[in-house]
Amino acid sequence: xxxxxxxxxxxxxxxxxxxxxxxxxxxxxxxxxxxxxxxxxxxxxxxxxxx
Length: 51
Prior knowledge:
Blueprint: E1 2-3, H1 10-20, E2 28-29, H2 37-46
Parallel strand pairs: 1-2
């Protein structure tokens, strides 16, 4: 598990999560603001990890 603590925007989250995939995390917590539902949807559509 990695906790990004809401520090990334959507594009940074996608890029960083793809880089972190090599470590096979169970999930990546709060890659961006938890209120950004559309951002999380976009992230989820482009990566394989759980958000």
